[in-house]
Amino acid sequence: MARLADYYLVVTYDLDKRAEGEGQGRILQRFPEKDWEDSPFPQGVELFCQPSGWQLVPERQPASFFVAVLTDINSDRHYCACFTFWEGLDNPQLKKAEAGEVDEADDELTVVQPAQVFAPKSLVLVSRLDHTEVFRNCLGLIYTVHVDGLTVPMETVVGNLLTCVIPIAGGSQRTITLGAGDRQVIQTPIDDALPVSGSTVAQLFRQLGIVNVLCLFCAALTEHKILFLSSSYQRLTDACRGLLAIMFPLKYSFTYVPILPGKLLEVLSTPTPFIIGVNSFFRSETQELLDVIIADLDGGTVTIPECVHISLLPEPLLQQTQTLLSMVLDPELEVADHAFPPLSTQPSALKIQDKEIRGVFLWLFARLFQGYRWCLHIIRIHPEPVIRFHKAAFLGQRSLTEDDFLMKVLDGMAFAGFVSERGPPYRATDLFDDLVANHVERIRQEETCPHKVMNHVKELAEQLFKNENPYPVVAMHKVQRPSENSQNSAQSQTPFPMLDEVTVELFIDHAAAKLKTAPPVVKAELKSMVPSGPPLGDTVDRNGNVMANSARRLEVVRNCITYIFENKMLEAKKLMPAVLRALKGRAARVCLTQELNQHVLQNRAVLDDQQFDYIVRMMNCTLQDCSHIDEHGIAAALLPLVTAFCRKMGAGITQFAYSCVQDHMVWATMQFWEAMFYSDVQNHIRALYLETEEGEQQNNHEEQDALGDGREISALELASEQSRLWPTLSKEMQTERVQKEESTVFSQAIHYANRMSYLLLPLDTSKNRLLRSTGLVDVESVSNSYVTNSIAGSMAESYDTESGFEDAESSDVANSVVRFINRFVDKVCNESGVTNEHLKALHTMIPDIVQMHIETLDAVHRESKRLPPIQKPKLLRPTLLPGEELVMDGMRVHLIPDGREEAMGLMGGPPLLPAEGAIFLTTYRLIFKGTPNDPLVGEQVVTRSFPIASLTKEKRISVSLPMDQFIQEGLQLRSCTFQLMKIAFDEEVASDLAEVFRKHMHKLRYPPHVQGTFAFTVGQSGKMVVEHKTKDKNQSLKTLSKNLVKSAKRTIGRQYVTRKKYSPPTWENRSSFQSELDEDEISVSEEVDQSSLTLSSTMRSSDRQTMSNVVERACCRDYQRLGLGTLSNSLTRSKNEPFRISTVNRMYTVCRSYPGLLIVPQSIPDTTIQRICRCYRQNRFPVVCWRNPRTKGVLLRSAGLHAKGVVGFFKSPNTPASGPSQADSISLEQEKYLQAIISSMPSYSESSGRNTLSGFTSTHMSTSDSSDKLRQPKIGALMKQVMGAKEEAPATFSRGAHGQRAKVISLSQPKVSGKARNTPRGKWGSIRGSGRLSAYNPDVGTRLAGKESPQPNGGPSEAFFLRQQKAYLYIIGDKAQLKGGKQDSFQQWEVVPIEVCDVRQVKNSFKKLMKACVPSSSTSEPNMRFLRCLEESEWMALLHRVLQVSVLVVELLDSGSSVMVSLEDGWDVTTQVVSLVQLLSDPYYRTFDGFRLLVEKEWLSFGHRFSHRGAQTLGSQNSGFTPVFLQFLDCVHQIHLQFPMEFEFSQYYLKFLAYHYVSNRFRTFLLDSDYERIELGVLYEEKGERKSPQVCKSVWDYIDRLNKKTPVFYNYMFSPEDEEVLRPYTFNSNLKVWDFYMEETLSEGPSYDWELRGWQERVAEETLDKADSGGPKSQRRIVWPCYDSLSKVVPDAITKLLQDLQSLEAELGQTSEKWKDTWDKMKAAQRTECKLESKPSFSSSLLMASNLSHQRRSQGVYLQESGVGSSINLAMDHEASATSTPVAGRPSTSTLYSQFQSTESENRSFEGILYKKGALLKPWKPRWFVLDKTKHQLRYYESRQDKECKGVIELAEVESVIPGTPTMGAPKNIEEKAFFDLKTTKRVYNFCAKDSMSAQQWMDSVQSCLSDA
Fold it and tell me: How buried is residue 1448: exposed, middle or buried, by Cβ count under 10 Å (0-12/13-18/19+)?
């Protein structure tokens, strides 16, 4: 029973305390005046009576009523019902004014004040019961008594009200009366556990809508701040009450203030969650709250701030709940579309609807919390039950670990309250307990069918409704309301009377006395055992990802464990990888723990080393995927096992498994240990009571389920039974039980302190390898705070040695572990009620436990070091190149798979990675060699290597291998040969060794000087020896290089120091050799004083002689080939040529980065050149590098202009400059220079000087060849695409030209052929809109691109062409530099501004390209897919730009103009463009010699900065790797793909160069210019000295040598057309990714070092021979992607034939001829045959494709190409034709073989196998003997296939052949007559044939030879 009202008070407006404009309320009277003991009077009620503030109003307001809720310090709620009415009083302002007391604050007197104002007065009831209507009626009655002046004394009414006592629950009705002729029925709910909601919930949904309320619901449960706004106070209270009602069975435990007074608004900025209601009047003040969700009840909106993220219900629950709610609130929605809707689908009445909605939420909670009782741990039963919830297990079994909402709810305060309230197993149960336990099955079956669920919800609603309204409503209410007139007749109203306190107090005392004497009301509380419901089954993951065929996986796990314990290690090893894969699945992990359990006897299982190793590996793998909360209980199941499995280590020392499985998150998680502890305690307490019951406890409830959790039901059951019996026990029994329980908990705490020290102290405590030490210190062990996972981060980074822990003792580790355990013990002991004495005892014990454990660990650690290492695969040695030396011997590492899937076996094929082996560091390469971890491919050898010079990025990583216990340190090494090595050092490699390895690697990668690179240090010893022989041969070369450098230095004015002969220092003093070199280093940046350099001063006669050697440089040979000036010995020139070879730069003084000899116009003197060069960056002035043999247009290259040079150059509209300023004179000279170039062109000289004004009219145009018209537009279109600027140019230019000139320029002479072809000459690729980089607007600023409508083929219209004319010279310049240049119609040149990609762009693009082609880890993200990454790298777009510009230049040159490329510094993009242009225009450069020349001339001589761009030395380390040359090779590769018949070299040749230009194996691509090469004396030795044969210093020599041996560089398709100009397609869709970037051969590493290949082949052959001996063998071979070298395993037909030919010739004993000769013969034979066939149009077979003229272009013969050569020393590119080349009449095969018809009979007259006895004491050996009549000798070979002759017996020396006798060691089982002896002048040979017959034959044959001679 409880009082209906605790306090009654009257609150009025306080006239005395009026602050400025703000009124206050004061309590006029309060009853009872003394506080009740059980409910103190709440403070501050007066604020809540007028939440918007106390104010006087000019008009009377209607009376109002609302209920505010106050919460006291014990979190009990007090309901304050406020009834407010308004009383008139004289205006206090006017009174003041009369008295003359107006203060400044009251300036409002200007406003007319009314005479009378109204003040509020509130009647308030304070109660702990929430009966809103009853309060409304009671207070209304009191008011009515006052207003209507009823005869009842007010004291009686108030007295009756305060003494009324009613039951709290039970469903009874109580009729009450206050003695004023009124009567009310109070209905109590049946069960007060269920909230009473009236119709508030339905009201809330109507105001806000379904989605909004669900949002608020989730926000409240996940502890967000919620604020309601409304202009009605009662609605605020109702909304808050509704929200709380739908949260049942959870209770809201944070701040709850349904009506917040305006004065307390600062409460809204509290940091804790709340539900608060505020009047809309204060809306503006709520605007700046950043983290509060605001629900506006009047407007129906919910506003969620940006920073707030509400976790919503998990799907599909959210969807289902929304559906159900809409069925309740809007039943018409379902049938809205029906043709015949049912007649009545009205929603239920509000009250019923309210309960239906609550039914939906009950159903929702039943689903969310289903099975929660299975995760309760009961840790104490007496004196009070203590219960904990195992959150991780609950989430794991519901497989909702990922679910944000449920995680937050379970971590929340509300749920903690739920557990402590509903956890106890013996208590009164309610509707929810019944639902969650007994209706689970029904809910599960119905959840997909909304109508069935709806029925269920309606049943629940009925129960809820019944709870509030158990009886039919009785209309017994009779309450007076004030009469209408009394409310309005305000004037007559008397003020509310004061009550007589004594009378009311008497009433109250009287009632209290009566209550005391009355017998106590005993309400039998029905306690019972709480049902648990069915256990949580193995629910499938929501995503349904139950592992496939899990039964088979479990079988594998079981078998493996069985094998291990039966000691069948080989079997176990085979299964291991499969087991480790299976252990990714949860079922397999559970299975593992169960299986291992069976092998534990009496808590021990002693294993041998290998068993131990395997078990530990499996445990690690199992734990590896466990999250830190261990939701599946795997770690929990393993915990007893890691302390059970052990191995003996001698001397009574045992190592347990726990010392090897420590590196897992879960062990450092406080929550895990708590859950484990509680579950163990529960088991022990259960056991305790099962013993005391002596088995009486009936165990029939144990429904065993899959996870073996069935026993838990009995623990709760037991507890419930014990709680029921508790009151019946005697005092002694009770204390005994309490003590027993406590000692159980205490002993478990000690046990756990031990366990924790096992798993937290590392094996080697001295090393501080406590991975989690940071975690252990920071963890706040609050189970529900999620801070605990802060250690997640600290796991990965193991401590560096540098972290300052080196000298600290092991104590830090011990301390942090002790602290962690102490925190744990404090927490669990306080929660489970352990006494303080016990706790103190524990605290003293823990440090001892830890210390003892450290001591045992030290012993184990010592022993474990002595253990013989587990047998690991032996390390394989790599083969080294001649001159390559090991710097560091192999370190055992694991090669970890990266993002390339082929090697991991994901694309089919075996998993080659991860592999175990060693990493070797040599002077040249970094090599990994090892074998795959997967035993099924264990025989294969995996090799991955790259040149140390190509290393671009090295970063430390930490790797956890699936097979190993530890997280290892590793390195990720990336190389620009498109290779990536992820290695993890084996635990046997000390970390300092790994550091030494890194340092050495860095030293080798960035030597202080180029001379430290491999190309210089290689074969050093050999080089010194050879030195003497070569001393005198090339004296002139030596002096040349010396003199050049000498004189250069003299001119620089620096004393010359004699250079010491460079001998590379040994490793120790390698670092010091920089200083030796520095003494006489010439600083390259120094400016040269040019005035001092006159010819006579710099060039002595001796130097002049040596000048002839310079002429041998590539450039000069090429200039002579092109007819660009000759250089006779006397340095005089033939005057009639337009160009001359200038020696102005022979001392490299004009331009450091140019070659010594340059082509300049004949008319320009050297002095001018010295002046001009200053205008250009790096002094790289324009020089000629190629001339078109047909049009005589020239190609020039230079750097971009310095900004200062541009001014006078392009900007002045008229050429003559005013005033002789220096800048102008230079710009004049520049113009002269360009003019001289233009004058050199025949087309110019023919056009009669500069008669530039005659129009270029239609007549002249028509004289040009028709194809001209077709050609020209294309240039225009090209131009538009290549240029980017927007400057407009005048539309017409007049430019002089005569008819005959037009002929000279005409692009293609009409060919005489049967058909008149209009196709332009040359191959042409059209250009469409280009890729991303060049999405600029086509420019109209040149004479080639106009504004008229273009033709369909993309060129300008015909009419436009009649006015246009070409410039003589086009200058391709950088757009950024040429801004604002004016075009002059008289000038002969024209600037084409283009955008070039700068070096930074190339560098970044390359980085991204590498990451795309060789990703470091596999990813499933769609944005990280290969094609997406490739696109983002923009590499293809850059190629497109370069190719596009090159094609434009080719076009311009071909159309008769000259072109000058002057971009950036003239050594990157310029070089690319110039080289490509020459390659496309001149077929010579598409041959071996030509390409070499091109690279030597344009890249090496013209100073592309190879060392700088390749970051080859320490100095250029920071500039980073920029592959400009690689980009060029890629462009060549693109052109090669489009024109496969135009190149003499194969794709492999390009790859070879791409690899070796970064490998530093050769000196070719070192240093930045010829000047630097001469300085080091590198330039001429390449030509002159014949080096030691094994070491090639030039890549070209190497390629030549190799090309002689094998056709690997040769392109069989090569059949060029004469004078062919190539025009490739350049847009992105035509470019292919170069397979050089993607391919890899794990069987042998990169195929570009040929010495290594030969060796590998020999080894392979030997192994094959061995294998052959046993039984027949299949001829088939499996070819694996990324492992085998395709071209070797599957060679192309021609290579194969050439190989077969070689081996046949060898068999016949002929000296095999060079493959090239054979090939040329074949082609010759083919040609003659084709002539005989006399069908010239189609004469072709694949070999003879050269006559295919233009048809073959249209067929597009495309060939595939794969990397590398084949076995034997004959290897070629695999280039099979993909098209059918038409074959006319088969050529007769006889002609093909004509040259092979050899007289075999003479050559090998007799051959076969004979056993030959070796020299003294050597065994008999079978050899293949060949008797050769022609050469008159008997040769013998190792085997029949062998080509190299082992020995020769000259028949001329043979004296006799006689039958012999068997001697010692002769072959067994051979008859005597099979032996014969051969006597020569020197010795006797003993032979043995296979039988007497063959012996006779041999003797006869030899004899006949002898007699013939």
Answer: buried
